[in-house]
Amino acid sequence: MKLLAPVAALLPFISLSQCLPSNAGSDTSGTTTATSALPSGTSMGVLNTLAQGIGKKYFGSATDNPEFTDSAYMAILESSEFGQITPGNSMKWDATEPEQNTFTFSGGDAVVAIANSTGKIVRGHNLVWQSQLPSWVSDSNFTADELTSVIQNHISNVVGTNYIIGYAWDVVNEPFNSDGTFVSDVFYNTLGSDFISIALNAAHAADPDAKLCINDYGIEGSGTKSTAMQNLVQTLKANSVPIDCIGFESHFILGEIPSDLQSNMEAFTALGVDVQITELDIRMELPETADLLDQQKSDYETVIAACAAVSGCVGMTVWDFTDKYSWVPSTFSGYGAACPYDSNLVKKPAFDGIVAGLS
Ligand code: G3I
């Protein structure tokens, strides 16, 4: 699918180097320019510092290995703006165990190395998901016992051997349909919902100190899917299965932030789990306009302020910080501009919205 060129890229450039984050260092790419037709972010607030200042553990970003050759991008990713990173793809099953019992850790290792050298924590993402699952698992005819062993072996190797990452794992990703039923995949179809406790127990055995999360979208506001996730948490807790956190992915559409986001977070934390905003972006129908960017600023503030107000909402992660590497345009035709930095790595008004939400 062809990406739409941002309007900014089509208009005359002026230098906006004063809009760079204070800690981004001097830009060497020559691409940090923007048009005066659209407003930029102006805040010099440092996101992770602000988040920690209000008692959160981190403000972070997803990233992906192909981006590591982009020096201007890396200057921001590695800066103190972000205290946490999530690998967008390189710790998933297809990347780590493409063939049975053949493990490849180089992609995830590179993410961990960046985190370690820049003092960031890592959210491991993810261990059991129907997507990006190699066919030797998804198309298998494993018995329940065999698939249990396959899950346990995958997790003990990925978590236990290589990625003692010191923070959290999305152990189970996106287990529910929008109507609150379980996704019909090889895990559920073979093991029923037991695959969830099998995975969580295996992750706990591999790294007893890691926070273990279930991550999903469409659970951010109250409703059938959110209720299903809350019921799952209660069942897991009642059966002494280790579950520490629920990830609210938060892939939102402009102007459609759930009005009960905060109270829904509180409904989860009341069950004894933390909440994390794990994949925040807010997409708009292109082209960007000043009005849309202003609405996006307000929406980012709303989301971040909700987490800020809930003590059990421990951190927030954007699903990459720049429109340059957003997954949105290739997935939602005609939509994009979802991130707090534009495709030229210049802060957008959304950045100021995040700062306002953290203040
Ligand atoms: O690795 C192949 C490469 O070999 C091939 O040449 C290329 C051609 O298209 O594709 C590459 O795979 C792509 C992969 O990202 C790695 O770049 C896939 O096509 C592409 O579909 C895949 O997209 C990822 C998507 O998950 C897949 O479900 C996105 O980058 C990633 O940001 C996205 O992340 C998910 C979270 O894990 C879960 N929540 C939703 C979120 C957004 O979809």
Brief characterization of the structure:
By secondary structure, the protein is of the alpha/beta class.
Spell out the key features of this protein.
two-stranded antiparallel sheet, 359 residues, TIM Barrel, binds ligand G3I, 8-stranded parallel beta barrel
Topology:
Blueprint: H1 7-10, E1 14-15, E2 33-34, H2 47-53, E3 58-63, H3 71-77, E4 84-87, H4 93-96, H5 106-118, E5 121-128, H6 135-138, H7 144-162, E6 168-173, H8 186-191, H9 194-206, E7 211-216, H10 224-238, E8 245-248, E9 251-253, H11 261-269, E10 274-285, H12 290-309, E11 313-318, H13 328-331, E12 335-336, H14 349-358
The protein binds ligand G3I.
Pathway: Glycan degradation; xylan degradation
Signal peptide: 1-19
Catalytic activity: Endohydrolysis of (1->4)-beta-D-xylosidic linkages in xylans
In angstroms, what is the radius of gyration? 20 Å
Question: Ions, cofactors, ligands: which are bound?
Answer: ligand G3I
Number of domains: 1
By CATH, the topology is TIM Barrel
Number of strands: 12
Classified by CATH, the class is Alpha Beta
Q: What is the CATH superfamily?
A: Glycosidases
Task: Write the CATH architecture name.
Answer: Alpha-Beta Barrel
Low-confidence stretches: 1-35
Q: Helix- and strand-based class?
A: alpha/beta
Query: Could you report the average pLDDT, rounded to the nearest whole number?
Result: 90
Helix residue percentage: 25-40%
Summarize the main sheet. Answer: 8 strands, parallel, barrel
Helical run tally: 14
Name the overall outline: globular
Order the strands across the largest sheet as they lie in space. Answer: 3-4-5-6-7-8-10-11
Beta fraction: 15-25%
Please provide the ordered H/E string of secondary-structure elements.
HEEHEHEHHEHHEHHEHEEHEHEHEH
Domain GH10: 62-357
Keywords: Carbohydrate metabolism, Glycosidase, Hydrolase, Polysaccharide degradation, Secreted, Signal, Xylan degradation
GO molecular function: endo-1,4-beta-xylanase activity
Protein name: Beta-xylanase
